[in-house]
Amino acid sequence: MVPASLVPRLFLLLAFLGFLTGVSEAHKNHVVGGSFGWKIPPNLTFYKEWAATKTFVVGDRLVFLYRSGAQNVLEVSAEDYKRCGSSNVTNMYYIGPTIVELETPGSHFFYSGVGLHCEAGQKLAVDVGTTAPPPPFVADESLYSIGSDDDTAQTPAPSPVKPVSGAATTGIALLAALSACLLHASLV
Length: 188
Ligand SMILES: *[C@@H]1O[C@H](CO)[C@@H](O)[C@H](O)[C@H]1NC(C)=O
Ligand SMILES: *[C@@H]1O[C@H](CO)[C@@H](O)[C@H](O)[C@H]1NC(C)=O
Hints:
Radius of gyration: 20 Å
Organism: Vanilla planifolia (Vanilla)
Domain Phytocyanin: 28-130
CATH architecture: Sandwich
Structural class: alpha/beta
Distance between the termini: 13 Å
Keywords: Disulfide bond, Glycoprotein, Signal
Largest sheet: 5 strands, mixed
Pfam families: Cu_bind_like (PF02298)
Bound molecules: 2-acetamido-2-deoxy-beta-D-glucopyranose
Strand content: 15-25%
CATH topology: Immunoglobulin-like
GO molecular function, one term: electron transfer activity
Number of domains: 1
CATH class: Mainly Beta
């Protein structure tokens, strides 16, 4: 188990990094369960109540905070989610923390496949909505041609979009690395 004293620090760290990457990409990192993290909840509706306070859109990420071995994350069908079954497991994650990007709209279902954790309420259903693509950082191209008929006017290069995803990827790598460090530190 991650020592309880470490969880708030991890949460703050992830929330901060999530804020940074969220701003640059207009997508959010949702730390599942907030500062409680991903473990057996105090009651059966804990994660349902958590999800009800959030809005999820395509491109957002779920951040499951847990120590490898103590928990895991299985993505399953609606039917499996209801029954804590495992006849249709679409994704399995064993290395905490797990970051899942919500790539498609609609419902997504997860639970911890360790022991009877799912039966104890360690399960999460999220409804993912679509959203318009975030506005590009470059000014609208029409602005460049206003008041100018000059055919040789330089077209703004589309490249400014690239560093954004690069920054986000770096953010995630950093986030994973820092979390791994903290978790490791907690074990020694
Ligand atoms: C479940 O637990 C959470 C956290 O302790 C609490 O806020 C919530 O009210 C509880 N829900 C029910 C239905 O008891
Ligand atoms: C498994 O789940 C996926 C996604 O929820 C669904 O599209 C597919 O039909 C399911 N397959 C079976 C055999 O239930």
